[in-house]
Amino acid sequence: MSGEKYYLLNRLNKNISLHKVIFVFVACLTLIPIISPPMALLLGIIIAQTVGNPYLNLNHKITQLLLQFSVVGLGFGMNIQEAIHAGSTGFTLTLFSITGTLLLGIGLAKVFKIDKITSYLTSVGTAICGGSAIAAISPVVQAKEKQISVALGIVFILNSIALFIFPLVGHALQLSQQQFGLWCAIAIHDTSSVVGAAANYGNEALEIATTVKLARALWIIPVALITTLAFKQGKKKVKIPYFIGYFIIAMCINSYFPWVQAHNQIMVNIAKAGLTLTLFLIGSGLSKKVLHFVGLKPMLQGIILWVTISLISLSVIINL
């Protein structure tokens, strides 16, 4: 090997190493308690637009597992009776919002002449629980990689915006902890941003938002069954969010075993740190390629769906 080639290869290896070191350093930085969920998300977006995410191929899987672990951990700080009450309060609103969002999405697809499957995945992600719903419904409608990527891109971009906007609107309108928690669960797509925004607002908002959102996630099952009939694709495997069962077990432990409650706060603190890191990883996945890949019409559909469900649900919650 010539000296020039060796020099260039050595320099490339150093750049790659520095690239990874910066990413890992910033990721570890988000575990410090002073870094809030919105700050972690912003750091992730900055990393994505500058040095990039060197582990992008693993990012989705790691994010999914870390989010599930964090949600279960938060269950150790919640009371099962209060959770049941919060879930029952949001049931009717959840039913109407999911139905309305899916119908509006179908109508917008015809108006904008958007690909049927891409539009449907975006609508399902907005209506139920973001990326998890898209992942669950994709095999049912036999979605292609590009269709899934566009829908996920829309959801993640709008999630990022919601994490910053919702707490500001909540404080401006002087929403109570209960009102804000319920609004987050109904109007923000993904569980990570729901929990992140609610945690930034208060503990009561966090408990209500997490419980209602996870109850909402179970609607993946009936929606998947209806989708199978509507798209006439035959029987396809649906990814059921089983981790919700572990979340319920964690709440039961916290509610009915007082002798372990003294140690539960440790799990809650670890879970909050995990959630913050999750949001950093989500932000680091919003590369320039993702932003350009989405397209104007699908993004416009996603924005209209999101703004509509946000404003209507906020109006209903304020007047409850």
Automatic annotation (TrEMBL):
<feature type="transmembrane region" description="Helical">
    <location>
        <begin position="266"/>
        <end position="287"/>
    </location>
</feature>
<dbReference type="GO" id="GO:0005886">
    <property type="term" value="C:plasma membrane"/>
</dbReference>
<feature type="transmembrane region" description="Helical">
    <location>
        <begin position="83"/>
        <end position="108"/>
    </location>
</feature>
<comment type="similarity">
    <text>Belongs to the UPF0324 family.</text>
</comment>
<feature type="transmembrane region" description="Helical">
    <location>
        <begin position="299"/>
        <end position="318"/>
    </location>
</feature>
<keyword id="KW-1003">Cell membrane</keyword>
<feature type="transmembrane region" description="Helical">
    <location>
        <begin position="21"/>
        <end position="48"/>
    </location>
</feature>
<feature type="transmembrane region" description="Helical">
    <location>
        <begin position="243"/>
        <end position="260"/>
    </location>
</feature>
<feature type="transmembrane region" description="Helical">
    <location>
        <begin position="180"/>
        <end position="202"/>
    </location>
</feature>
<feature type="transmembrane region" description="Helical">
    <location>
        <begin position="147"/>
        <end position="168"/>
    </location>
</feature>
<keyword id="KW-0472">Membrane</keyword>
<keyword id="KW-1133">Transmembrane helix</keyword>
<protein>
    <submittedName>
        <fullName>Sulfate exporter family transporter</fullName>
    </submittedName>
</protein>
<dbReference type="Pfam" id="PF03601">
    <property type="entry name" value="Cons_hypoth698"/>
</dbReference>
<dbReference type="InterPro" id="IPR018383">
    <property type="entry name" value="UPF0324_pro"/>
</dbReference>
<feature type="transmembrane region" description="Helical">
    <location>
        <begin position="214"/>
        <end position="231"/>
    </location>
</feature>
<feature type="transmembrane region" description="Helical">
    <location>
        <begin position="120"/>
        <end position="141"/>
    </location>
</feature>
<keyword id="KW-0812">Transmembrane</keyword>
